[in-house]
Design goal:
There is one protein chain. The chain is of the alpha+beta class. The chain has helices spanning 7-16, 18-36, 93-99, 116-124, 127-130, 170-184; strands at 44-48, 51-55, 59-67, 75-84, 106-109, 133-135, 142-146, 151-155, 159-164. The strands form 2 sheets. It has a 5-stranded antiparallel sheet with strand order 5-9-8-7-6. Strand 8 and strand 9 form a beta hairpin. The radius of gyration is 19 Å and the shape is globular.
Length: 197
């Protein structure tokens, strides 16, 4: 068992966990093919050394295993949808069916660092969400818990993360994350969920 975080420990985790990554990736490949009807030539599939990637005409995803940051003796198996090539795919029921059990958060990277102090001040001026705001004393990050949207939001200088407060539901998560971004637009976040090429 790894006794700390270092390159050799990460390599060990990826080597020992490769079969788990391959198993998840192969099942997702089968599910995607069955749900979307893509042909072989429309897929790009790679899987090696504890890392896998599937590229399709509508989206790209990655599956990887890594040493857990909080506990060196454990691991994290992560499935990430890293790009949407069409706006329609985010509302497609087949997409939700395929990934609801694999994806529990939406992460948006800001184009450039934001000023957390300014965002906190702006949110405190929005009456309908001001009471939902919590932040670190040093203002390094903040959180919003929005029960009406069933949503938990965590914001740092570089990214914003959305998670449902209740059970996983990818369609609901995407829809409610966009609704939260619409509310936060008055705090000048200036981002929308959309496609990435």
């Amino acid at each position: 068992m790894p006794d700390g975080h270092h390159a050799a420990a990460q390599a060990f985790v990826r080597n020992i966990g490769h079969e788990d990554v391959k198993s998840v990736t192969d099942q997702l490949y089968t599910d995607i093919r069955g749900l979307f009807g893509y042909r072989r030539r429309e897929f790009a599939y790679t899987c090696e050394d504890g890392f896998a990637a599937i590229k399709t005409p509508d989206f790209d995803l990655q599956i990887h295993i890594d040493q857990c940051q909080d506990d060196a003796k454990n691991y994290e198996l992560t499935t990430e949808i890293v790009a949407l090539h069409t706006t329609e795919i985010a509302t497609d029921e087949r997409f939700h069916t395929c990934f609801t059990h694999h994806c529990d958060s939406v992460v948006v990277d800001f184009p450039s660092s934001i000023n957390i102090d300014d965002k906190i001040d702006a949110i405190e001026d929005i009456p309908k969400i001001a009471d939902c705001l919590e932040y670190e004393p040093d203002c390094s990050s903040f959180e919003l818990k929005l029960p009406k949207l069933d949503l938990h939001i965590h914001v740092t200088e570089s990214q914003i993360t959305f998670r449902l407060l209740s059970l996983r539901n990818l369609g609901k998560l995407l829809d409610h994350s966009q609704k939260a971004l619409d509310i936060l637009a008055t705090a000048d976040f200036g981002i929308r969920l959309g496609t990435k090429h």
